[in-house]
Design goal:
single chain, mainly alpha
């Protein structure tokens, strides 16, 4: 994710980041992102300013779809 964001920052016209189905807050919880943040980072996902919530907020900025070729 970090490399993708760095590349997007450097080449915004060439790198595109799309949101995946796992980037939804509830799906991320089900798939273990909240638990991973808790175990690895001692994060508390219930806190408003948690790492988990920061990731979910970031994912909300990603578009859900893109047009590859407009003909």
């Amino acid at each position: 994710l970090k490399v993708s964001i760095i590349n997007y920052s450097k080449y915004p016209d060439q790198v595109h980041i799309l949101r995946g189905s796992h980037d939804d807050r509830e799906i991320a919880k089900i798939l273990g992102l909240a638990e991973e943040c808790t175990v690895k980072l001692k994060d508390v996902p219930e806190n408003k300013d948690s790492v988990f919530n920061a990731f979910c907020d970031l994912f909300n900025y990603f578009p859900v779809a893109a047009i590859i070729k407009d003909t």
